[in-house]
Specification:
Elements lengths: L1 E3 L2 E3 L2 E2 L7 E5 L6 E6 L3 H18 L4 H17 L1 H12 L3 H24 L3 E4 L2 E7 L2 E5 L5 H15 L2 E5 L5 H13 L7 E4 L3 H10 L3 E7 L2 H11 L5 E5 L5 E4 L5 H13 L11 E5 L3 H13 L19 H16 L3 E4 L17 E4 L6 H4 L6 E7 L2 H9 L3 E2 L1 E5 L3 H9 L5 E4 L13 E2 L2 E2 L4 H6 L2 E6 L2
Parallel strand pairs: 1-5, 8-9, 8-11, 9-10, 11-12, 13-14, 13-19, 14-17, 16-17, 19-20
Antiparallel strand pairs: 2-3, 2-10, 4-5, 6-7, 7-23, 12-22, 15-16, 18-21
Helix pairs in contact: 1-7, 2-4, 2-6, 3-4, 3-6, 4-5, 9-10
The chain binds nicotinamide-adenine-dinucleotide.
Length: 471
């Protein structure tokens, strides 16, 4: 059984001061694959001290030096890509293709940061003044379990590009993937103390972080509930905050859309990453008169979405991440049935032949309304609610009638019409006739999906302070 590392401070993996342990269970079969000994407050205070000491020199490094570090981290991640895919599959349950894609993105995030640095003016003239963009200081980075290496990469790359030093708190439910990324950073040979990691209970580690006056910035990706707690706590020490939180994204199929491409894309938008994606398009708005045709294509598409052991190449959806996730998704499916939505595909329980592990049936509800619990709350599982609409205005109003605003999707044969609808949606990103990712354009949410943006120059600026010089 593996023993995962929870503490990396000042350039070394250390035995944690904390003693509490947690078994790491593979969602594929429910078997224990390793153990994590949690870092505690003492470990966290040491990590903060190391980051504080390293800041003195790191904030003065040149752009050329930072670019060199990014090249090295990128290369080290590529060297370990097979290990990362194995960990993402066994620890999290990702399908092979998804595991490869997401970990390759983690590597390219560091390469992309080189281009961001080459194009970003750290000094500019504004009217009669010179404005200098400076590193905020020590940054604490909190990341979730559903996109371990991707979330870590996007935050570390932006913080380092700005000249910040780091205390990383990855999810305690993905320690294997986090450890490999830290080993890549270690191998890249950054100065000691620039990147530190403490993994353990969020509330314990965050207490030490939030009380510290050495930490100047918190960048958090995770649930809205926890994000709000940290956001409130941050004010006491005036930490700058970026919050990347949950979503309940709308997908509007306009009445002129090609359903044979739009509906399979809509299924993919909801079921991606085993349905555990903040950007999941989990509310599908379809024109009332097209409902029968939509149902037929939904059934055809969902039937091809093979669920099973993600070690098999042809599997598109693995198990959900934990027993807790399994139970949560079952409760939502039960609530949908109870509220009167019709199960078009899937439903309660495990898929046939997958009795071990945390497999759920990808589920599609029709006859849902935007008021039902399944349409209002983030399920964080492969559950799609299909809601029919009578007019474009009604579709837009229902799409915007949500506590969240992370992503939205629009399909139409008329790009001008689709863009007009996109312009009326309250979401940080709108994808029109595509599921493409743009790693340089801002990513982040409206409303309860958070505040601040990641990626490209927008992500970099989250780690910078503006200083005006008037001479
Ligand atoms: P979570 O909020 O439970 O945990 C996120 C991180 O915060 C983890 O490192 C965790 O240990 C820590 N944490 C947990 N409780 C804490 C507390 N009381 N105080 C301080 N830290 C605490 O979220 P999760 O379950 O790991 O991730 C799923 C959520 O993340 C979903 O809501 C999803 O939508 C969201 N998410 C958002 C994005 C985005 O970019 N907007 C991306 C991925 C996931």
């Amino acid at each position: 059984m593996k023993s995962f590392q929870s503490v990396y401070i000042n350039g070394s993996f250390l035995k944690p001061h904390g003693t509490e342990t947690q078994d790491i269970i593979s969602p594929i079969n429910g078997e224990v694959i390793g153990r994590l000994t949690y870092a505690d407050e003492t470990d966290t205070q040491q990590a903060i001290a190391a980051a504080g000491a390293a800041l003195v020199n790191f904030q003065k490094t040149s752009i050329t030096e930072r670019k060199e570090y990014f090249k090295r981290i990128h290369d080290e991640i590529l060297k370990r890509i097979d290990d990362l895919i194995e960990a993402t599959t066994l620890e999290y349950g990702a399908a092979k293709d998804r595991a490869k894609w997401s970990n390759m993105i983690s590597a390219t995030t560091f390469q992309n940061q080189i281009a961001v640095l080459e194009n970003y003016p750290f000094e500019k003239t504004v009217n009669e003044s010179t404005v200098i963009m400076e590193a905020i200081g020590v940054a604490a980075l909190f990341t979730p379990w559903n996109s371990v290496s991707g979330s870590i990469a996007v935050k570390i790359a932006a913080a380092l590009a700005a000249g910040c030093t780091i205390v990383l708190k990855p999810s305690e439910f993905g320690p294997w993937q986090a450890q490999i990324i830290m080993e890549c950073i270690d191998a890249a040979g950054l100065p000691n103390g620039v990147v530190n990691m403490v993994n353990g209970r969020g509330d314990i580690i965050s207490r030490a972080i939030m009380e510290s006056t050495v930490v100047n910035k918190v960048s958090f990706t995770g649930s809205t509930v926890v994000g709000k707690i940290l956001g409130k706590q941050a004010i006491d020490t005036m930490k700058r905050v970026t919050l990347e939180l949950g979503g309940k994204s709308a997908n509007i199929i306009l009445d002129d859309a090609n359903l044979n491409t739009a509906i399979p894309m809509a299924v993919q938008a909801c079921f991606m990453n085993n349905g555990q994606a903040c950007i999941a398009g989990s509310r599908l708005f379809v024109p009332e008169e097209k409902l029968d045709e939509v149902k037929r294509i939904l059934l055809d598409t969902a039937a091809q979405f093979k669920v099973g052991d993600p070690s098999n190449e042809d599997v598109k959806m693995g198990p959900v991440a934990s027993q807790k996730q399994y139970d949560r998704i079952q409760q939502f499916i039960a609530a949908g049935i109870e509220d009167g939505a019709e199960v078009l595909f899937g439903g309660l329980g495990r898929p046939e032949g997958l009795e071990n592990g945390y497999y759920v049936k990808p589920t599609i509800f029709t006859g849902a309304t935007n008021e039902m619990q399944i349409a209002r709350e983030e399920i964080f599982g492969p559950v799609l609610s299909v809601i029919s609409y009578k007019s474009e205005e009604e579709a837009i109003a229902m799409a915007n009638d949500s506590d969240y605003g992370l992503m939205a999707y629009v399909s139409s044969a008329d790009i001008g019409r689709a863009k007009n609808v996109a312009g009326q949606l309250k979401a940080g990103r709108v994808l029109v006739n595509t599921l493409k990712h743009d790693p340089f354009a801002p990513f982040g949410g409206y409303k309860n999906s958070g505040f601040g943006r990641e990626n490209g120059s927008y992500g970099l600026e989250e780690f910078l302070e503006a200083k005006t010089l008037i001479a």
